[in-house]
């Protein structure tokens, strides 16, 4: 386990970086803030695709986060080669993300990131965090609850 200047670098990744990954990023950031661990973590999120670069999260994702007292100013970005070299952990939402990330990481010299499914940390064993984009508010709430469980368990493991 690698510490960069005493900070653990975490990147949360989904296909477009406007639904699941910004929710996970905002949830993790709030957990870290609530635990007064901001100085120990650098948290970000990114997309495997370039479809939404520069866009704010989906309005339903923002609404879901606000309902839980969480704000975010995130704008979507695509994962870069440097991410694989600087982040300690890259946690993604589903098998498709995992395949894409593993393929991209194989093209990067000095990849140090541990690439896993965020759902690996779910105490309820829900391995996949389904994309809520074509769903409704309830689906975004399900993503929030999964991200909260997984992020809490991940933070407990590495804190």
From TrEMBL:
Keyword vocabulary terms for this entry: Cytoplasm, Hydrolase, Protein phosphatase
Could you say which EC number(s) this protein's record lists? Answer: 3.1.3.2, 3.1.3.48
**UniProt GO MF annotations:** acid phosphatase activity; non-membrane spanning protein tyrosine phosphatase activity
Q: Which reaction does it catalyse?
A: a phosphate monoester + H2O = an alcohol + phosphate; O-phospho-L-tyrosyl-[protein] + H2O = L-tyrosyl-[protein] + phosphate
Which branch of life, at top level? Eukaryota
Q: Which Gene Ontology cellular-component terms appear in the entry?
A: cytoplasm
Catalytic residues identified in the record: 20, 131
Q: Which Gene3D superfamilies match?
A: 3.40.50.2300
List the subcellular locations: Cytoplasm
Annotated Phosphotyrosine protein phosphatase I domain ranges read: 8-157
Q: What does this protein do?
A: Acts on tyrosine phosphorylated proteins, low-MW aryl phosphates and natural and synthetic acyl phosphates.
Give the protein family.
Belongs to the low molecular weight phosphotyrosine protein phosphatase family.
The protein here is known as Low molecular weight phosphotyrosine protein phosphatase
